[in-house]
Amino acid sequence: MAYRWGMAIDLDKCTGCEACVTACHAENNIPSVAPEQAGRGRAMHWLRVERYYEGDFPNVRVKFRPVLCQQCDNAPCEAVCPTYASHQNEDGLNAQVYNRCIGTRYCANACPYNVRFFNFFNPEWPKPLHLQLNPDVSIREVGVMEKCTFCIQRIKAAKTAAKAENRAMVDGALQTACSQACPTTAIVFGDLNDPNSRVARLAHSPRGTKLLEDLGAEPKITYLQKQPWHESDAY
Amino acid sequence: MNRTLTRPIADDLIRPLFQTSVWFYAIVLAAGTVVACGLAAWLYQMWNGIGVAGIRWPVFWGFYLVNFVFWIGISHAGTLISAILRLVDAGWRRPVTRCAEVITVFALMIGAMFPIIHLGRPWLAFWLFPYPSEREIWPNFRSPLAWDFFAINTYLTGSVLFLFLPMIPDFALVRDRSTGWRRRVYGALALGWRGTTRQWNRLESAMQIMAIAILPVAVSVHTIVSFDFSMANVPMWHSTIFGPYFVAGAIFSGIAALIIAMAVLRKTLRLENYLLPLHFENLGKLLLLMSILWAYFVFAERLTVWYGNEPHEMAVFWATQRGEFAPLYWTMVVCNFVIPFVLLSNVYTRTITGCVVASFGVVIGMWLERFLIIVPSLAHKQLPYSWGTYGPRPVEITIMAATFAAMVLLYALFSKFVPIISIWELKAGQLSTSTHPSAHASQASHDSHSLRAAAPEVRP
Fold it and tell me: pLDDT digits over B140-161, tens only?
């Protein structure tokens, strides 16, 4: 049976603590660029927490929205890549083949979510961070594009383990680094093809919306938040 | 053919090939130095990583792509204009066509460098080529960049042929007048030209075929360049008007480049008797027409965006109209419309100087237009949180300067080794008007004008 990995992010639970951002950096060997380069727009956060402010002082509310690759079904980044580095894999993920990327950066321009990041230089880690690199994740060299993979290394390992033990995968046993690190369990990861999985049920929640849904990219991440017009039947 | 009638013209136009002024060495040295700096800058960028350029998240395309579109636009000077003028048999085209066709070939060569310079890993650029690889992967034909690759290669091949065909009789002329290594080189280039009737007939039909074939290629090339932008769902890129808008803009900047090149050649190679005020006047009128057409396209594009009032697009619209990019935007309008329109719409300022000033305005304005298409849109994509901006870094500016120097260098070398005005076409034009004045009633005034100016040359 084919998997279709998806995510649900509960914005009403998100506190904006950015534990997910840190976990993502650690899990996926994302280089930390120096402050000077970060100021020049070279920071790479596969997952970022966007802050939006509502209302006028003193009645200001801050809203947080973790934004990562939406793993679109109809992904704008894939068609434009001239070398198939960006493509849809068998689990419906937008996979990026680093070795095939020549760095046209067209995919990053076509992506309406701006969640693709470019290796402007060869990666470096300030000591002692170089000692904690994840051996399951390849290092990306200068000139290639990278982005959130839904922790594909964990997916592969879990699939292999399930196959070896000849069993189906258990919902919730497989977690991405961000969902694992979230202290308020705002991020839920799972298989959208399994109708009983938590993520599949949340995807149909009346509180759910997709980011920039009108663009037709068909993202696989559902954002949950209190909808004023559904106050009575909140999930 | 009456040799005594035509020899002085040939003498005049071949002179630059045999006499070298100190200015030639000065220009080659100066331009060559800048080109070398550009190459060094590119090596520096490849060694350290493309991060030495100013591109950044979220503006991943910057100066390199601006210059790519700009130079491909300039390349429409030649082939397209010269093909149209040949097909309608405009008599005044004869001294202009080769200057124009050369611009096309060199501008294409320069423009086609930029997508490679801008790659993160330029050493893998050959993956765009559909070669049988052991991994059985072809380029992705859904990607506009793959279309670009084929369109530009087709256009470059066609333009080189289109430039080369009418040069054959002139190579033969130089061959017959030279000795030693020149005779061997030009003899090889002349491809055994003897000037028989059969050869003339074949040349004429080959040129006719190329002139017709190159038109759709030229139009498609800049349409496909525009598709790099309009295919992506980016605010103010995703527009149906981009194809014709880019083609019109390309021809517009191409004519401007041609006028500048002609004015420079006229002074440096002392071609005052061949590149006449009439040519500048006619090209000036064409530039005026394209300026009005350009303004119409901009008006149509801006009005529909503003009236449609789609929030993502309006962010880009206001950024260019009255936001951070407004100074550049209004400079562009002045350079591309106000200056050419004022200077070229009345006969008193449509002089050579007026045309050249207007052309410089257009070249600057069209460069800004490409910048204003690429950067503000990427800086204001759908999610406001990810808005950003862009500024070039020294390496980008150096490489850009090097490409302008490369144009000067290539042009200087070309006019040193090839007669920059098609000698045989000029002779053919003078013969046809002097023997059949009534048959060319529409051009009679133009050509008699040119004959009168060239009169001292015609008589032995």
Answer: 999 999 999 999 999 999 999 9
Interface of B with A (CB under 8 A): 48-51, 54-61, 115, 118-122, 124-125, 127-128, 137, 139-140, 142-146, 149, 228, 231-234, 378, 381-383, 385-386, 388
Sorted by where each starts, the structural domains of chain A and their CATH numbers stand as 5-229 (3.30.70.20)
Q: Which of A101, A132, A143, A157 is nearest to A28 (CA)?
A: A132
Residue B6: what pLDDT?
Answer: 54
The answer to whether residues B298 and B249 touch, using CB atoms and an 8 Å cutoff, is no
Cβ <8 Å between B120 and A113: no
Residues A76-109 pLDDT 10s: 999 999 999 999 999 999 999 999 999 999 999 9
Q: Which of B233, B237, B316 to mutate to test binding with chain A, by most A CBs within 10 Å of its CB?
A: B233
Distance (Å, rounded) from C-alpha B404 to C-alpha A55? Answer: 52
Q: Would the CB atoms of B57 and A118 count as touching at under 8 Å?
A: yes
What residues have CB less than 8 Å from B126, skipping those under 6 apart?
A: none
| ipTM, interface predicted TM-score of the complex | 0.90
Cβ B378–A109 below 8 Å, yes or no?
yes
d(CA B274, CA B457) in angstroms, rounded, equals 10
Torsions phi, psi of A116, nearest 5? Answer: -105, 140
Domain that holds residue B190: 3-121+139-273+394-455
Q: Is the CB of A144 less than 8 angstroms away from the CB of B139?
A: no
Residues B303-331: what's their mean pLDDT? 95
Nearest CA in chain A to B48: A121
The 8-class DSSP code of residue A145 comes to E
Quick one: closest CA in A to B382, which residue? Answer: A112
A52 CB neighbours in chain B (<8 A) are: 385
Cβ within 8 Å, pair B120-A101: yes
Say what the pTM is. Answer: 0.91
Cross-chain residue pair A105–B61, CB shorter than 8 Å: yes
- Please indicate, yes or no, if residue B334 is contained in any of the structural domains: no
The answer to whether A120 and A37 are in contact (CB under 8 A) is: yes
Helix (H) and strand (E) counts in chain B: 18, 0
pLDDT of residue B179: 87
Instruction: Evaluate whether A81 touches A104 at the Cβ level (below 8 Å).
Output: yes
How high is the pLDDT of residue B435? 55
User: How many domains is chain B partitioned into structurally?
Assistant: 1
- Chain A residues in contact with B153 (beta carbon < 8 A): none
Integer angstrom CA distances of residue B124 from B63, B272, B373, B374:
21, 48, 28, 25
Check: CB of residue B78 under 8 Å from CB of residue B100: yes
In a domain, B421, yes or no: yes
Whether residue B140 and residue A84 make contact (CB cut-off 8 A), yes or no, is yes
Residue B196 resides in a domain: yes
Q: For residue range B402-446, list pLDDT tens digits in order.
A: 999 999 999 999 988 999 888 888 888 877 766 544 443 444 344
Which residue is listed with tokens 């196959």? A163
Of A42, A109, A118, the CB nearest to B120: A118
Q: What is the mean pLDDT of residues B353-375?
A: 96
Q: How far is B135 from chain A (nearest CA, A)?
A: 11
Give the integer Cα–Cα distance in Å for B208 and B199. 14
Is the pLDDT assigned to residue A61 strictly greater than 80? yes
- Measured N-to-C along each axis, helices B144-164 and B97-117 cross at an angle, to the nearest 10 degrees, of 150
- Answer whether A121 sits within 8 Å of B139, measured CB to CB: no
Report yes or no on B212 lying in a domain: yes
- Residue among B54, B56, B143 minimizing CB distance to A79: B143
